[in-house]
Design goal:
The protein is an alpha+beta fold and 149 residues long. The chain has 5 helices and 7 strands. It has a 7-stranded antiparallel beta sheet with strand order 2-1-5-6-7-4-3, with helices on both faces. The longest helix is centred in the C-terminal third of the chain and has 11 residues.
Length: 149
Amino acid sequence: MAERSVLCWLATADDSGQPNVSPKEVFAVADDEHIVVANIASPGSAKNIHINSKVCLSFIDVFAQKGFKVYGVASDVKQGQTEYFRWVEPLRMMAGDRFPIQSIFVVRGTAVEPIIAPSYRLYPRETTEASQVQAALRTYRVKQEVSNV
C-alpha cells in the first residue's frame, strides 16, 4: 500500500509535546523494517526528530478510505554521513534533480496499525472498497479515466 500512496504524512512532536504533521511526497520502503523519507524542505520535522525520535507515518488510499500507520523511531541522516548512501538511491530516483534532498529521515518501524473509515465497521455487509471508491469519486467530483493499457 505504501508504494501506491502519492503522499504520506509524517507526525513528529517538539520538546513541549506539540505535534506537527507534514506531508511527504518523496519516500520509499527500503526494507522489511525501514521507510525512508526525503527531507526536502522540512526543518521543523528535522528539529523535532532530533528532540524526540518517536514518529508516526500515515499512508491512506483516499478513495478506498483505508490505509495504515507506521509507528517508529526516526533518525535524520545528513549528506556526508556514511549511512546516507545506504538510503538515498530510491529517493533520488523519485526526486530527480528537481528537489534537493537535504537529509533522509530513516524510520525503523516498531508497530503498524490499520486506518479504516468508520463505514467499514458500522456497515460491514454493504461497505466494500469498490463502494467506497465510487462514493469518493462522486463526493469529490473526480472522473475516473479508463486506460487502454
